[in-house]
Amino acid sequence: MRKFRIAVTRIAVAGISIAILGGCASSDTLPTSAEQSSISAVRPIEISSSDIAFATPFSEPWPTNAAQRIVTIANGSGEVVVALGGGSRIVGRDETSNAPEIENIPIVTSGHEINAEGVIALNPDLVLIDASSGPQESIDALKSAGVQVVEVPEAWTITDIDPKVSAIGSAIGAPTQAVEYVSALTSGTEQLSLPSTPQVAFLYLRGTSAIYLLGGAGSGADSMISEAGGIDVGEQAQLGAFTPLSAEELIQLDPDVLLVMTNGLESVGGIDGLLQLPGVAQTKAANSRSVIAVDDTMLLSFGPRTGALVLALNQAFVELNAQ
C-alpha cells in the first residue's frame, strides 16, 4: 500500500449492527488482471498520522491558575491542549488524541465510553468532555468525586474548529495568545481547485461488527471532502450523516473515489476486500481502485492538523486524477 507523503488532524458508531443490502458483487466492471496489477502498485493512497506534521506547541508561560492535571476525553482535544502548550499537563486522554508529547499517557476511554475509575485514579483537576462522551453515569461519578468536568463543543466542519479551540483554551486557562496561535493553524484552508472535481463517497466500515455506513451531510467527512476540492456524493444526494450502505444506492451514486479510515479498510480485508462489498465493485472508484485511507485519529478530529490534512487530501485527489 503506497503512503502519500506530505509535510504540511473518529467517529464511534455504537449499538449499530447493519447488514449491507443488495446482491453479490459483480466483477464485470473491474479492470483486467494486468490493469489491476499496475493500478494496485499505487493504490490505495494512505495518509497516516506520521505523514502530517505536528505544529510546534505554543511555548510562552501559562498563568499560575491554569489547570495542572488535565484529562482530555473530548474528541481530538488532546492535540489541541498540546498545541496550546499544555502537553505536560495531560495525565489521561481519549484514543483519538495523538501527539508525540502524549503518546505514553494512559488512555481512559474505549470508543466514547469513559472509564470513570481510571480517570479518578489519575487525580485530575479538569476533565474535558464533549456531547459524545458518556455514559452519563460515568460523568456523574466524576462530578461526585469532586472532579471539574467541562463540556466543550464538538467540531464537524472547519469553521467549528475556532469555537472548539477557544472553549478548550478557556477551560484549561491557556493564554489568549496560545488560543490565537492554534486557531491560526487552520486558517487559510480556502477552497482548493482541482483539474476536475472528484465525486467522493465516504464509507465508515467496521467489518468485524458488520457495520457498513455511507457518509452524508454532517458526517464531518463531507466538510473535509469539500474543503479539499471534491464533492461528497452522500451529501449531494441529501443523505443523513450516516446511512446504512445500500448496494443499489452506491451504484447509483457511482463515486470516482472512495474515502475510508485506515482501521475500517483493514477490517474488511484491505482494498481487495473493500472491492468485494456489494455495490462497490460496480463503481468508477472500484474500476480504477481509487481509494484514499486516512488515519482514524485524524480524519474527523478537527484540530490543529486539519488544515494540513485538507492539503494532503487535495494532493491525493490530484494524484488519483493523474493516473
Features:
single chain, 323 residues, alpha/beta, Rossmann fold, 2 domains, 15% strand, disordered N terminus
How do the SSEs run, as a string of H and E? EHEEHEEEHEHEHHEEHEHEHEHHHEHH
Net shape: globular
Helical run tally: 14
Helix content: 25-40%
Topology, number of strands: 14
Proper CATH architecture of the largest domain = 3-Layer(aba) Sandwich
**Name of the CATH homologous superfamily of the largest domain:** Nitrogenase molybdenum iron protein domain
**SS-based class:** alpha/beta
Range of strand content: 15-25%
Whole-number radius of gyration?
Answer: 20 Å
Number of self-contained structural domains: 2
CATH class type of the largest domain: Alpha Beta
Largest sheet: 8 strands, mixed
Poorly predicted sequence stretches spanning 5 or more consecutive residues: 1-31, 34-39
**How widely separated are the two ends?**
16 Å
CATH topology of the largest domain: Rossmann fold
Mean pLDDT level: 86
Written account of the structure:
The protein is an alpha/beta fold and 323 residues long. It is 34% helix and 15% strand. It folds into two domains: 2-51 and 191-322, 3-Layer(aba) Sandwich (Rossmann fold), CATH 3.40.50.1980; 70-174, Rossmann fold, CATH 3.40.50.1980. It has helices at residues 33-40, 77-86, 116-121, 136-144, 161-172, 176-184, 221-227, 233-236, 247-253, 262-267, 270-274, 284-288, 296-299, 306-322, and strands at 2-3, 45-47, 70-72, 90-93, 109-110, 113-114, 126-129, 149-151, 199-206, 211-215, 231-232, 242-244, 257-261, 291-294. The strands form three sheets. Strands 1, 2, 9, 10, 11, 12, 13 and 14 form an eight-stranded mixed sheet that branches. It has a four-stranded parallel sheet with strand order 4-3-7-8, with helices on both faces. Helix 4 (136-144) links the parallel strand 7 (126-129) and strand 8. The longest helix is centred in the C-terminal third of the chain and has 17 residues, at 306-322. The chain is globular. The relative contact order is 0.21.
